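Good morning N.,

You mentioned wanting to compare the apo and holo forms, so I went ahead and generated the holo version with coenzyme A. This is what I fed in:
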Amino acid sequence: MTNKDSQATPTIRIARVADLPEILRIYNQGIETRLATMESETKDMEYMKQWYHNRNPRYQVIVLENDKNQVIGWASLSPFSHRVCYAGIAEVSIYIENGSQGNGYGKILMQGLENVAKKNDFHKLVLNTFADNIPGQQLYKSSGFREVGTYYRQGLLDGQWVDVTIMEKLLI
Ligand SMILES: CC(C)(COP(=O)(O)OP(=O)(O)OC[C@H]1O[C@@H](n2cnc3c(N)ncnc32)[C@H](O)[C@@H]1OP(=O)(O)O)[C@@H](O)C(=O)NCCC(=O)NCCS
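and this is what came out, ligand included:
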């Protein structure tokens, strides 16, 4: 039996305030990899509460739970731009906890996020990714995202320039 076969199908639901400690734990793991985000400082609960409570309800956060009702991943939609002409575009964030990566959960979560985005009238998803985030790149390609291009020296992470690749997926 492969690792994949032994995993029960996880469930996806809209995140609640009570999920914030788990969302924070998983987010900080992602920050520490230096492969997932331009954020370099780990976050605390105060930050997460503001992040959660200041959201426009259209830009939802979802979590993935295992069969023991433990949160093992989360994903969110964020505004691409404040300009009205871009109101149909949402930016993707997606994180699976360290011990659970590579089991197909990222793909399930991305599908869940896409469903939420369609329900909330977004016509397109976009995301930023680093070239060396191999699982991320693979997930995006196999989820139907198209590479738009790469910004060179787009940001500074730990004092080093980082190139950022933009990807998009049309939902309609
Ligand atoms: C990126 C991430 C969300 C992917 O989720 P995952 O559960 O690990 O990925 P999955 O198991 O669903 O695999 C998705 C695809 O990537 C491939 N993949 C997964 N891990 C891989 C690895 N280490 N090397 C190469 N390919 C890999 C899978 O084979 C699968 O490809 P396929 O659809 O063609 O079969 C997850 O690894 C993660 O949270 N990483 C840390 C945070 C991060 O980088 N987030 C993205 C930026 S916001």
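Helices lie at 3-6, 20-33, 45-53, 105-119, 134-142.

Happy to go through it together on a call whenever suits you.

Best,
F.
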